[in-house]
From TrEMBL:
Taxonomy, superkingdom: Bacteria
Key words, A-Z: Membrane, Transmembrane, Transmembrane helix
Transmembrane intervals: 12-31, 43-70
Protein name: Mobilization protein
Amino acid sequence: MLNTKYIEYIAVYVSVLFGCVVMAVIVRLSVLALGVDEFTANVIFFATIFLLVIIYSILILVIDGLYNAIAKRILFYRKNTSISAPSPMEVKDFNKIREDSQKAFAEKEQSVKEVAIRYTQKKFAPYTSNEQLDLLCHYIAHYSEGKQLQVTHQISVIKLSNLDIYHFGWNIWNYLKISNQAEIAFFSKVYFMVYSRMLRLKRSSDISKTTSQKESSKFRRIF
């Protein structure tokens, strides 16, 4: 069986040819009525058919070209419109993605801060008062947020050496890593009443070398 598309083409071409023949017959009869001989009338008949077929072909080519050009311009315009003017649903989705990302980042920061505060509470609860411990946790929270700290009150501790304070500061820095080691050394020195000659003399590059392995491993287990 022939394809339906081919059948449509055949029907169109047969219809066009039939129309051309009808027009040619009318022209032939007209010239015969004017007294033209049979041979000339037949020549005019076939010439008319040929001319009408040529005219039809030219019209088809012109119309098809115009149609394709107009269709392409319409598609191009619609495509640009859809890109330059996203639907409200797409904008809403982008906002939701942005909000979810910001929320996840904030939750991660909060979780890190809470871990650092719990570590601080566990380490200093036996060696300072509740008020002093709350103040220290307040300082740690500000430090974990990357804020610039201002000394209002120093932390008073008992039964802790300079090295203990030093280990605590390095562990906090190693977990948060929001500043360089020199800043955490300054933090440990300024916020505690226990002043360490080692903290004043040690350079920041020496801190990781002198940190107690036992203290650091305990901190890692807590985290």
